[in-house]
Amino acid sequence: MSRYQEIDLSKIHFTSIQDRFSKVDTNSFAKVSDNIIDSMPDILKGAEFKEFINRCRLARDSDKTFIIGLGGHIIKCGLAPLLIKLMEEGIVNCFAVNGSVTIHDYELAFFGKTSEDVSKGLADGTFGMADETINTINRIIIRASEEKLGYGEALGKAILEQAPNADISLLAQAYRYNIPVTVHIALGTDINHQSPYADGKAIGDCSLRDFRIFCEQVKNLNAGGVFINMGSAVLIPEVFLKALTIARNVYGTVQDFTTAVFDMNLQYRELENIVRRPLENGGKGYYFIGYHEIMIPLLVQELLR
After folding, report:
1. Residue 99 has pLDDT above 90, yes or no
2. Which string of b and e fits 159-173 if b means at least 16 CB within 10 Å?
3. By CB atoms within 10 Å of each CB, which of 4, 53, 74, 286 scores lowest?
4. Residue 288 belongs to domain with CATH number
5. Are strands 226-230 and 284-289 parallel, antiparallel or unpaired?
């Protein structure tokens, strides 16, 4: 016999499952359907994704502002045609992108290829040294600063007028549809900064102009708009937070909108700056993890449906 006293389980009080709250029941199970959203279970992320899609459709049908933030991986995974379709259908009002988006978009539009072998190029010092890309972009931005254009505006115009594959260029088609693509540059992060022709004054001038354009767009999220960040872990989340601050400072209330992050893993700034902090006074944020080349087509297909 143990020297220690055991609890007497005969004194247990049982309950009935009929009276107990259960988070899962058969009504929430997955269903066989021709539509993938309808086939998702109303459980966990399946339920969240359905809810998010419904909020997006409500914004779409009510002509609310729809802004998408992008990292370069979205473009180099071949997803630009889907985003262009959202512009054609009048769903998206603005894109906010980092510098890598412009690099990949430019190369695909002019040369039909992008995304070099970084490790190989880094080993011999040739990474990012393609003359046709870096020096032409620099020339466009220097001229854009002289003409007081935005970074995305200038590149979109040049691609639309000159590139053989302008039809697959997010920047070109946005310029065609008069939709701003604001480009937010961190000096030293893009390959066109690796050139003696890079003009920091011109780059900063055009990118700062884009920031002010973006702030004006963010104020329109009030009362039902949607902001989605796709694959920018740091830059766009930081820019969005500052733009929202300015919009609220200048215009007052910018509340009750929907945000979402689509990325391949959980990132601190995306979670805090897009899903949590902006919505403490109203609205709702979502975070969906998955491969862009799978999740973005799924999202776009439902927005178009």
Report:
1. yes
2. bbeebeebebbbbbb
3. 4
4. 3.40.910.10
5. unpaired
Question: Hey, what are 194's tokens?
Answer: 């690796």
Burial zone of 246 (CB within 10 Å; 0-12 exposed, 13-18 middle, 19+ buried): middle
As given in the structure block, the two tokens for residue 40 are 């998702």
Q: Across the strands, what pairs with 230?
A: 70, 262
pLDDT greater than 90 at residue 294:
yes
- Which of 131, 138, 76 lies closest to 109 in space, CA to CA? 76
Q: Print the domain residue range for 179.
A: 40-304
14 inside domain: no
Alpha-carbon gap, residue 137 to 114, rounded angstroms: 15
Is-contact 224 58, C-beta < 8 A?
yes
CB atoms within 10 A of CB 216: 16
Domain-located, residue 195: yes
Domain count, the chain: 1
